[in-house]
């Protein structure tokens, strides 16, 4: 006799069960009840339809009742809610929009009712401008509201997957978006040291992010909603998306005799059977076993729901499939970033009382010499036995496949050794010969086998200051660009010669940029008897922790916030919406810092007050640089976007403010000039000097470079110039480098090879050469002054120097330094 199977819920789990059942059993009678009109729709695509990345609504409808009937002979009853289950009589009660209430008997019942969005009893929650997103009707309502003329702003409550996706998609639609998260950080599957990178991406893309603040109340204010947070901050917006989590939609089962978990999830065994004979349950409504910690949990994701549906169908059809737990592998797009995770995070392991270790690596997505390689951050979590417990990855490219590979290793019970041995596909456009997954394995293996002694920055912060010495083993240049307060700088290449500077009685906590040189330093120091801790992930990981969400990310958003009431006003110029018109366009793609800024400055000079410059750039640093540049030069940054690594800025020239600033400078109110004393004649120091000087000039600052002693060699003409000199002066002149092309590197000169290499690297990376930088400095009005006294001492004449150089004395320099707020000695 054929089986009669009823299915409750017609989307992920329900539709999967139905299709698999039919494929296994052609004779079964299969009825699928769905409360709403639509079945088998793409829940995961809903935010992207609202954001209009998915243009056609029909694309969301994967199956219809008619197509399910035609292909699978499924009796789909939509608009039919199951309101009661009698597990003793094996009967369900159905409330149909067309047929009214009726009963239906079953041999087997599969429950896949999913989870509903939480809507807690907060004052004002009944407002029609507060939306949740679960299904097609919700999507239609939100989209219709966003499409309405005059909808300018939104508050998204909740920084989980749906909240972040909605924030991004509403921003893509041009709305001013504030994302509010009650926890200290967004995206709970990630540890905070990773989710912070996603937070920065949101803020960089103009989303106002407020963390650690929950909602106290809502109130309608005319056409808008006012959201009051626990901190009493008030945000007014046209609509609110409530995305604070989900609860199993199982209320209709309260009299069914089924067993439930503490939060209302249906309890099942590994065959998806409930405690009642013939009843199975799958999807968001059930409790599952965490694959790594083996604790009970609930993981509302589409992958597990679909697989569980298949397993329930198998068992009903007599096959012996089992569900072995969920490891929560998930992924999200946050503007241009990809954030993915699998397995347990630190919080889950701590809760389960399990010991673990973590390492960070920052490998590139593919061979660094092949175009478009971009770095990613991978965090690996493993135990002392080498078993891989979890991984998280964030980056612009290639994160998905690395996390999927590690997810596979976890599923197969794999170890760190397996990660080191995996043979993964490689050609330069796709990966490196040592794939990021292998790299993470190597680093973890070194830790496990005691060759590397890593610590997270969190571990270091818990140490007593007097117990350790903090050493930055990067180059001087890197150190001077930014370092951890209190760190001394001993570049790894100088470490062996400078061991005497380190106290052998203290732990040496050292870091490099990403952890690799730190490992070399660890090996050197350990073999010299030091106790060492190498900060995993290096300065890159440490510095990312400093990120704090800004409330006013860029001027367009600032203008929408009333400084007195902290209220978001309707945006007058919505970002990315109206900023289409511009007076001049600049393509600075391919140029490295300070190239784009220098070009911006030159282009702005050609514009009239009120005119707009559109700039395209690809240097990642430009995203931050241009904000600072506009602020410092009093130009208005109308819009700033970053799409797939391409940065576009719209800048409005504000002549009056500039004039006001200049007037201030003239009456001596603002001492804002920059002075550089260039003493060194080393190639690298000369490059650094001119980069800084050009950068400052591009920000509209008056810059004076005062060249003295060896620094004068930078200014020498390359060709011999006939001048009258004494014997001593002539000898000096022959021994010293004749001009910028003959300068040597301060380190790793290697008989001139180092200098050639650095010039080649600069060329490949589109950084201007020293000669171009000098010319730019002269063109942009930087004062280049040769010290008269040094010229005399070195036996050089003015004719031997390049054109455009002024001769000045110490008095001139001191006068300029008086009017400066930055004075560097290089
Ligand atoms: P659902 O797919 O929600 O289906 C349950 C169905 O049962 C509903 O249609 C409901 O109307 C119906 N129903 C409930 N009670 C009854 C009743 N008594 N009688 C009749 N019918 C009933 N997961 C991912 O893995 N990746 C993603 O990118 C992702 N994005 C998402 C984006 C959004 C906006 C949402 C809402 C979810 C997203 N998810 C994502 C989660 C994923 O959609 C769910 O995990 C998955 O759909 C769960 O399947 P399910 O069958 O348990 O429930």
How are the elements arranged and paired?
Layout lengths: L3 E5 L3 H13 L4 E5 L12 H5 L14 H8 L2 E3 L2 E7 L4 E6 L3 E6 L2 E4 L3 E3 L12 E2 L4 H12 L5 E5 L3 H12 L3 E6 L10 H13 L3 E4 L3 E7 L2 E6 L4 E4 L1 E4 L3 E3 L30 E3 L6 E2 L6 E2 L4 H15 L13 E5 L2 E7 L2 H6 L5 E5 L14 E7 L5 E8 L3 H13 L4 H6 L14 H13 L5 E2 L1 H5 L6 E5 L3 H6 L6 E2 L17 E5 L4 H12 L4 E4 L2 H7 L10 H4 L2 E2 L4 E2 L15 E5 L6 H11 L6 E6 L4 H12 L2 E8 L2 E7 L2 H12 L6 E6 L4 H16 L4 E5 L19 H9 L17 H12 L5 H10 L3 E5 H7 L11 E3 L1 H9 L1 E6 L1
Parallel strand pairs: 1-2, 1-7, 2-3, 7-18, 9-16, 10-11, 10-16, 11-12, 26-30, 27-28, 27-29, 29-30, 33-34, 37-38, 37-41, 38-39, 39-40
Antiparallel strand pairs: 4-5, 5-6, 8-17, 13-14, 14-15, 19-20, 21-22, 22-25, 23-24, 24-25, 31-32, 34-36, 35-36
Helix pairs in contact: 1-7, 17-20, 20-23
The protein binds flavin-adenine dinucleotide.
Flavin-adenine dinucleotide binds next to α1, α2, β4 and α7.
Please give a structural write-up.
The structure is a single chain. The strands form eleven sheets. A five-stranded parallel β-sheet has the order 3-2-1-7-18. The chain is built from 25 helices and 41 strands. With 826 residues, the protein is of the alpha/beta class. The longest helix has 16 residues, at 683-698. Strand 13 and strand 14 form a beta hairpin. Residues 553-578 and 657-669 have low confidence and may be disordered. It binds flavin-adenine dinucleotide (FAD). Flavin-adenine dinucleotide binds at residues 8-14, 33-36, 43-44, 46-47, 81-82, 112-114, 133-135, 162, 249, 252, 283-285, 300-303, 305.
